[in-house]
Write a structure and sequence with these properties.
Blueprint: H1 5-24, E1 32-34, H2 36-47, H3 52-61, H4 89-103, H5 132-143, E2 151-161, H6 168-178, E3 182-185, H7 187-205, E4 225-236, E5 247-252, E6 258-275, E7 280-286, E8 292-299, H8 310-315, H9 318-325, E9 331-340, E10 342-349, H10 350-356, E11 383-392, E12 396-400, H11 404-410, E13 416-419, E14 424-430, E15 435-442
Parallel strand pairs: 2-3, 4-11, 9-13
Antiparallel strand pairs: 1-15, 2-4, 4-12, 5-6, 6-7, 6-9, 7-8, 8-14, 10-11, 11-12, 14-15
């Protein structure tokens, strides 16, 4: 996989997941915070054991591959069934035949190969380095630098019912690429102890910030496979806020309602831009070492009847995000920043969310194909739970989950303002790889 393809896939998935989580919000002013990177890495690990349509759906939802569009003339080999999410049976047979043929000459999992010949609309062949697992392994190794000035730990694990014999190749690959292992537990006769064991592991991996990831009742004697992911980050701002400059303020939820909040303030040079098409300001605040940054997208003002984020959220795509937050389109200018001190903890049951995005078969006992994980091929993914924590203060951020010369010259003449006293989107990004690790929406103080 080319170096820019994995960040593109992860960011595309992050934005799609964000929009789905927004749809699920019961409160229009609700906050959102998650680690789409951690979720994507964990599900990619599961894909090592997925086959057939299960793998295809997962790959498309995670944006590792694109859905095949029907060509002009309606060639059946590349057409989609009109009542999605299921692909036309004849197309799937063709896909599986192609994958089987490719797999005979390659040890890579079939879903990573896109060599569909004889159809202009099918995904084009990729060379041997197009390996999603190797790309994740490389990125994880970059994030685990011992000399880094931040603390970042990412842990993924599968818990499987002990009566199943899991494929040795699958276990070796998960350990090799994701520094993760599949652990067998006794769901059948001791589900509650298994749940507590999983929760304790997650709490340990996240420095005690994520507790009770799996609530009571989520694991039962019928549970076969549980996926958990945990991510922890703590970083100090390169330019820290001084606590004596923090003041009491009002956070505007919408045009009429406010909540009290502590507003931090500083004036320093940052990468900054104004996006006219969505009337938003973009600010990049780096952490010590500059490998990680928080990128904040703030509407200039609340111009709609709700949070002020609607136009931004509707227009936000991977290409727009890359364009709006790229350093080549931002000036390095002096900015007077006011930002709320905030803390969020959010929990998500991702099963229905992922199903609504098209990942259906993995959760269906009659359709799931994890034959690469167990020769019994009667496993089904029963739960995907995600819980994320973030705290932003004067010193920096603690989180768990799991341009140009013309503008530079202007910096000597004016000071930009970035007043985060109303709803905004924020992303924690690994700058060398351009990978989004965390994504959130701050719409309301606690």
């Amino acid at each position: 996989m080319e170096s820019e393809m994995l960040p593109k896939a992860n960011t595309t998935f992050a934005l799609a997941l964000y929009k789905k989580l927004k749809e699920e919000l019961k409160d229009i002013n609700g906050n959102i915070f998650c680690s789409p990177f951690s979720i994507s890495a964990a599900l990619a690990m599961v894909m090592l054991g997925a086959r057939g349509n299960t793998a295809t759906q997962m790959s498309e939802v995670l944006s590792f591959s694109e859905p095949i569009a029907p060509p002009p003339g309606g060639d059946l080999q590349c057409s989609l069934q009109t009542d999605r999410p299921y692909l036309m049976q004849s197309q799937m047979q063709t896909r599986m035949q192609m994958r089987t043929q490719i797999q005979r000459t390659s040890r890579l999992p079939a879903y990573l190969r896109k060599a569909f010949s004889g159809c202009s609309q099918c995904l084009k062949p990729e060379n041997a380095k197009d390996d999603i697992d190797a790309s994740f392994a490389q990125l994880l190794s970059e994030l685990y630098k011992p000399e880094a000035l931040y603390v970042l730990s990412i842990a993924n694990r599968l818990y499987g019912e002990k009566q199943y014999t899991f494929d040795k190749t699958f276990l070796a690959e998960t350990k090799k690429h994701y520094k993760a292992e599949l652990e067998t537990v006794d769901f059948a006769s001791n589900a509650e102890a298994s749940r507590e064991h999983i929760n304790n592991w997650v709490e340990e991996q996240t420095q005690g910030k994520i507790t009770d990831l799996l609530p009571s009742g989520v694991v039962s004697a019928s549970t076969r496979l549980v996926l958990v992911n945990a991510i922890y980050f703590k970083g100090k701002w390169s330019s820290q806020f001084q606590e004596e400059n923090t003041t009491d303020g009002e956070f505007r939820l919408n045009k009429t309602d406010t909540k009290p909040v502590k507003l931090m303030m500083q004036k320093a040079k940052f990468h900054f831009s104004f996006i006219e098409e969505v009337k938003c300001k973009v600010l990049e605040m780096p952490y010590e070492g500059n490998d990680l940054s928080m990128v904040i997208i703030l509407p200039k003002d609340i111009e709609d009847e709700t949070t002020g984020l609607e136009m931004l959220e509707q227009m936000l795509t991977y290409d727009k995000f890359k364009e709006w937050t790229g350093r080549d389109t931002m000036g390095f200018v002096e900015v007077k920043v006011r930002l709320p001190r905030f803390k969020m903890e959010e929990s998500y049951d991702l099963k229905e969310v992922l199903k609504s995005m098209g990942m259906v078969d993995a959760f269906d006992v009659a359709r799931s194909d994890f034959s690469g994980m167990s020769s019994a091929n009667d496993l089904v993914l029963s739960e995907v739970r995600h819980k994320a924590f973030v705290e932003v203060n004067e010193e920096g951020t603690e989180a768990a989950a799991a341009t140009g010369a013309v503008i530079n010259e202007r910096a000597a003449m004016i000071t930009e303002t970035f007043d985060g006293d109303h709803p905004f989107l924020f992303f924690i990004r690994h700058n060398p790889s351009n990978s989004v690790l965390f994504a959130g929406r701050f719409s309301s103080p606690e």
